């Protein structure tokens, strides 16, 4: 084939590809997963293809909820919490993967992110319902069961050992991002690459919509002059803050985000948005950056290649 012939061939293929893109239809589905409305937006050749792929994607999200949920007594994470302190427990590949990422981040940010914060999370959930602050005694007791340093991982045996009594895990700051990654992967395996997963403050994107460079996402707390909306494709964006979940007691607004180092609910009113190559990174980093605040949070984000962070005060 000569060069002119090859160029014509490429042009024909490109035209066919563009035609195929224009014939893709947009479909949206919503299901309740991980305590929030999980929305899938996909481009597919027809509705049966979209429904089949999204059904498989939601099944994957449901499976991960069975692993990570701290609301379900029979979830894998909660069963692990019931093991005697110091006893190694073999866990699923998914739980081990997320645990490894969580512990690594905890080490980097010196405990500002910690999936063992569950005891304090339980106290503040009760506080939001009763509108009564936890007592100092209850907080001290809860903090005695927290500490990422007291989790031992064995990659060879794929076991997790919780070393302190009464430890309780909370993967709320990382699991939705991971679920987004996995859901997009399932959609891709089922022939749909142009897809968007949204669950609460976490968004994971596959390939962009037809004839677009990316999915347009507006960042509420972007710095002045920053590109807004941003366009993302094959990446993720997550936001953490108290805009949706909080309680006001005696004139003070307490966030649902807990500082694991103190056991206290945040009152600093920062919102952190993180763009990252994948959801597990954006979700966890946005939580850590929200706890750390602008200066330390930005320093942490800079340690991750391909990450952009926005951390700004929330308007009163």
Task: Describe the protein.
The termini are far apart. Helix content is 39%, strand content 23%. It contains 9 helices and 16 strands. The protein is globular, with a radius of gyration of 22 Å. With 316 residues, it is an alpha+beta fold. The relative contact order is 0.13. Strand 1 (25-33) and strand 2 form a beta hairpin. It has helices at 3-22, 47-68, 76-81, 93-108, 118-130, 136-143, 175-189, 279-292, 294-301; strands at residues 25-33, 36-44, 89-90, 151-154, 159-162, 195-199, 202-205, 215-217, 230-232, 235-240, 246-249, 252-255, 258-259, 264-265, 270-276, 308-313. Mean pLDDT is 90; it is low at 1-17. Strands 1-2-6-7-10-15-16 form a 7-stranded antiparallel sheet, covered by helices on one side. A 3-stranded antiparallel sheet has the order 3-5-4, covered by helices on one side.
Instruction: Indicate the radius of gyration in whole angstroms.
Output: 22 Å
Cα distance, first to last residue?
Answer: 67 Å
Unreliable segments (pLDDT under 50, ≥5 consecutive)?
1-17
What is the ordering of alpha helices and beta strands? Answer: HEEHHEHHHEEHEEEEEEEEEEHHE
Supply the number of helical segments.
Answer: 9
Q: Characterize the overall form.
A: globular
Please outline the major beta sheet.
7 strands, antiparallel
- Total strands: 16
The proportion of residues in beta strands is 15-25%
Mean of all residue-level pLDDT scores: 90
Q: Record the strand order, biggest sheet.
A: 1-2-6-7-10-15-16
Structural class: alpha+beta
